[in-house]
């Protein structure tokens, strides 16, 4: 939600935005989030079931902070039908592919098309090529990805959840792209706040709401 609050007299403003991560399974969406939120990396992270919820703040300047409410969605095909629950009312999206897997780049393009058709018309979309620490195994060139991002009007960044390279820069670039001074966006965020706080879906127990930063 794009609601705005102040931390107190003379304090800066905090803008809240709903952000969703999309992409093929095993491209590293959850690893990117964990690097951003906790500065941690786990080589053996299990696949997300349904979705997981996180929050993290990014200072934009001395008086402005963006707080991301992050929905990390499962990439397996059987969960694809749940994705609209999470990108609905999102103000920003991170679409992730693995630079060593050309097929994941094609899937990322499909996610971008879906967002452009069905998500908020003003959604900010970032295309992210993860695992650039494996450049020797690269199957998708930087130039190819950049050209596509330019054509589709996307932010673009290559990053590595494993090393942390460009992860914070990615989310800060998204924060700077958000309409922080738009009253229209603020009002929309307030209207949609209840949708943003919808419980996560746990396919093993649909009655269990998310708790903290667990993978539900």
From TrEMBL:
Membrane topology category: Lipid-anchor
Record keywords: Cell membrane, GTP-binding, Lipoprotein, Membrane, Nucleotide-binding, Prenylation, Protein transport, Transport
Xref: Pfam families: Ras
PANTHER family cross-referenced by the UniProt entry: PTHR47978
Species this protein is from: Dimargaris verticillata
The keyword Transit peptide is assigned to this record: no
Start and end residues of each stretch annotated as Disordered: 178-216
Identification of the protein by name: GTP-binding protein of the rab/ypt
One GO CC term on file: plasma membrane
GO MF: GTP binding; GTPase activity
UniProt-listed SMART domains: RAB, RAN, RAS, RHO
Composition bias type Polar residues, residue spans: 182-216
GO-annotated biological processes: protein transport; vesicle-mediated transport
Subcellular location: Cell membrane
């Amino acid at each position: 939600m794009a609601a705005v609050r102040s931390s107190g007299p003379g304090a800066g403003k905090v803008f809240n935005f709903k952000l969703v991560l999309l992409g093929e399974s095993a491209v590293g969406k959850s690893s990117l989030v964990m690097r951003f939120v906790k500065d941690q990396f786990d080589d053996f992270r299990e696949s997300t079931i349904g979705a997981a919820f996180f929050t993290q703040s990014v200072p934009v300047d001395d008086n402005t902070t963006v707080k991301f409410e992050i929905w990390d969605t499962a990439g397996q095909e059987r969960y694809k039908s749940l994705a609209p629950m999470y990108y609905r009312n999102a103000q920003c999206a991170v679409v992730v592919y693995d630079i060593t897997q050309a097929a994941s780049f094609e899937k990322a393009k499909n996610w971008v098309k879906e967002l452009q058709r069905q998500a908020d018309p003003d959604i900010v979309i970032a295309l992210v090529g993860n695992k650039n620490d494996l450049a020797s195994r690269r199957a998708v060139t930087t130039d190819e990805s950049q050209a596509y991002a330019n054509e589709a009007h996307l932010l673009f960044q290559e990053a590595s959840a494993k090393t942390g390279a460009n992860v914070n820069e990615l989310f800060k670039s998204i924060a700077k792209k958000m309409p922080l001074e738009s009253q229209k966006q603020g009002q929309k965020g307030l209207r949609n706040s209840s949708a943003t706080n919808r419980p996560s879906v746990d396919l093993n127990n649909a009655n269990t709401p998310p708790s903290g930063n667990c993978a539900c």
